[in-house]
Amino acid sequence: MASRSIERIKNSKDTNQEDVFKRLFMKPSSDKATLDEVTRVEDGIGAFTKTNDRAASDVRIYCDDDSFGNGGRWQPVPDIKKRKKGVPLNSQRTRGKDQEFYDPINGIRMTNPDSMGCKDLDQNNQQYTAAETFKTLSKDTKYSGENPKRSSITICKITTDEKIKSLGDLPTEKDISKLKNLDAFDSMASLVMLHEFTHTTEYMKVDHNYMWNDIQKLGAKEALENADSFAYFGLLAKLADRKFILSKDSAKATSGELENDANYIQKRRRRRSLGGLLNERLHPRALVELVGKMG
Fold this sequence. Notes:
This protein is α+β, with helices and mostly antiparallel strands. The protein is built from eleven helices and eleven strands.
């Protein structure tokens, strides 16, 4: 998905992907600085491969729905005896309000004490987070042998429970036709994963806006910083492989409508997709360790 977007944008005949580029990054691909940054991110993520060396890996991916407490991955940060007057011990604080947690395996801290990651609830008492990336590192010297650019990603239950995890789960043209608007793909695991990979230490993208309609409203600077802009750029490249492209009608394209084009450009390199990796390994309690920047 990620690398495919770059293959398409570098093909001068791929006019639809050029339109997508302009809508998402607010400049044409002829703008070298913009294209260089999009290429760095998408091709870098596309080069991730599996490794069995956890300590050296750049990204550690968990599907444990952010488990806390006894037996969980997230544990309370140990109490610090020397602290400012009036500041309570961490063990005396309230989980989800001001208690701080860390992952003792990877030496990564949960940044916001008032967040429970995947366990955060909306006004209807329902979980709403699809995934979350963590990259604040512990300063404890016992983690000196770990990759100093490491990040961890939690894929939440909302995403692991989704029936459609990648475009490969839509085997026929008819299946995709039922999801003609881009918003229908928002919870697809491969899109969620591409979004999260852009948050990792190597790329440091942020969340200015989410979803198709709102990411088109960003200025050029913010668009190049925005995680969902890169995610949708990759998604539309893969949809084009299935002969579905952004509508050629400008108003419909703005609203995220797709159209089927049986003759659209199909040439591509043979390369394993992120979707294939997800279909193979995305399941509850699984851990996938990846290391990127190959070659």
